[in-house]
Design goal:
The chain is an alpha/beta fold. The protein folds into two domains: 248 residues, TIM Barrel, CATH 3.20.20.70; 68 residues, Winged helix-like DNA-binding domain superfamily/Winged helix DNA-binding domain (Arc Repressor Mutant, subunit A), CATH 1.10.10. It is built from 16 helices and 14 strands. It is globular.
Length: 383
């Protein structure tokens, strides 16, 4: 039996964008047409049906509709999608249901329709409010577009939303980063994702890299930004997530707490605990056209699965749990991997000896303040 205490979430991937950003290595594709909404929604629901046997009797605690730019889909199709999900599985009454939105595709009516269709939380991809920086990132919206989109969110009746910001941008100074955060704080509902731009493979920036701030400037931006957020009452609870009390992203918390999640959509990943205790990862084909062709031709079998070996579980668990500044209860390791805590403590010996982990006698698996500063190195000791 799958322990009922292991939470289960659902990730839904809508893979299209109006234009691919030069820094983006997500599975996103240009070429969206409104004609794709019906067949893709039907494919998503068929995908979900093919994975129902893995869900046991657990209710879905959160749903995250990401991309791509999910707000390219009209409210009618998001509502149909959520209705179909509810027909196939149990959604907890207090489930958090998030949809990502780009200010460049924001429409007041669409936000109203999303809320009416069952969305409870939005994540708005602002990135920066400075127009020259937005242009350097290849974004299709302006700072004023972002402000208008956030105003639409409040008028649509949402009381929970996230503002997504980047820092360390080409030409950005510490003062510019602080100004971005000041705008976001004034327009927020208590949750801001704030993370540094990194240049990833398979992006346009990888082949033609921009000139980024030097290390000294990056450090100044980080320090100034953390001070600005802290002064406004935002606490860092994860590497790139800050919130006021009670506004944590429940869906993302499930990832970091090593919960289970079903993934549906082109390129979507999943992690599922089977009744046997085996933990497997899944992934669908990344190509939207191949995904749709498969759905329309032979239908979906469950996605390809790869088991996580017992030897790899301590590293997998640490890689997620230690992103949380407060860590997780030590008992979560046994509950969510089926292994004794000793397996984690043996793997943690090097990090513990360096003072990078908190005292396990507290009952928590977490970094020390020093360890959180060197998180990549801490996680590396488990590999």
């Amino acid at each position: 039996m799958i322990p009922a205490s292991i939470p289960l979430s659902l990730y839904v991937h809508l893979p299209w964008c109006t234009r691919k950003c030069p820094y983006c290595d997500f599975n996103s594709h240009e070429g969206f047409s409104s004609d794709l909404q019906k067949p893709y929604t039907e494919a998503l629901l068929a995908d979900l049906s093919s994975q129902q046997d893995w869900m046991s009797a657990r209710a879905i605690q959160s749903i995250f509709i990401g991309g791509g730019t999910p707000s390219l889909f009209e409210g009618e199709w998001i509502a149909r999608l959520l209705e179909g999900i509810g027909q196939r599985l149990t959604i907890a009454g207090d489930a958090e249901i998030t949809l990502e939105s780009n200010p460049g595709s924001a429409e007041a009516k669409r936000f109203v329709d999303y809320k009416a269709g069952g969305i409870t939380r939005l994540s708005i991809g602002v990135q920066t409010f400075h127009d020259p920086l937005l242009q350097s990132l290849g974004r299709i919206h302006s700072g004023d577009d972002a402000r208008r989109a956030l105003d639409m969110v409040t008028h649509a009746g949402f009381d929970r939303w996230n503002i997504d910001l980047m820092h360390g941008l080409p030409g950005q100074t510490a003062d510019m980063a602080k100004a971005d955060l000041a705008d976001a704080i004034a327009l927020s509902a208590g949750h801001i994702s704030w993370y540094q731009l990194t240049i990833e493979r398979n992006t346009r920036f990888w082949s033609t890299p921009p000139s980024l701030p030097d290390e000294e400037t990056l450090e100044m931006i980080q320090e100034a930004g953390e001070a600005t957020l802290s002064h406004a009452g935002f606490n860092q609870y994860e590497v790139s997530a800050y919130c006021v009390g009670g506004e944590e992203s429940l869906h993302n918390l499930n990832y970091w707490q090593f919960g289970d999640y079903i993934g549906i959509g082109a390129g979507a990943h999943g992690k599922v605990t089977l009744p046997s205790g085996l933990i497997q990862r899944t992934q669908r084909t990344r190509s939207p056209s191949d995904y749709l062709s498969q759905a329309q031709a032979e239908g979906f079998a469950p996605p390809p699965q790869a088991a996580i070996t017992a030897e790899a579980l301590p590293a997998e668990f640490a890689m997620n749990a230690l992103r949380l500044k407060s860590g997780v209860p030590l008992s979560d390791f046994s509950e969510r991997t089926g292994l004794p805590v000793d397996a984690l403590m043996t793997a943690a010996a090097e990090a513990t000896a360096k003072g990078w982990l908190s005292d396990p006698s507290t009952g928590r698996f977490a970094t020390s303040a020093l360890g959180y500063r060197f998180l990549d190195s801490v996680v590396g000791t488990f590999v």
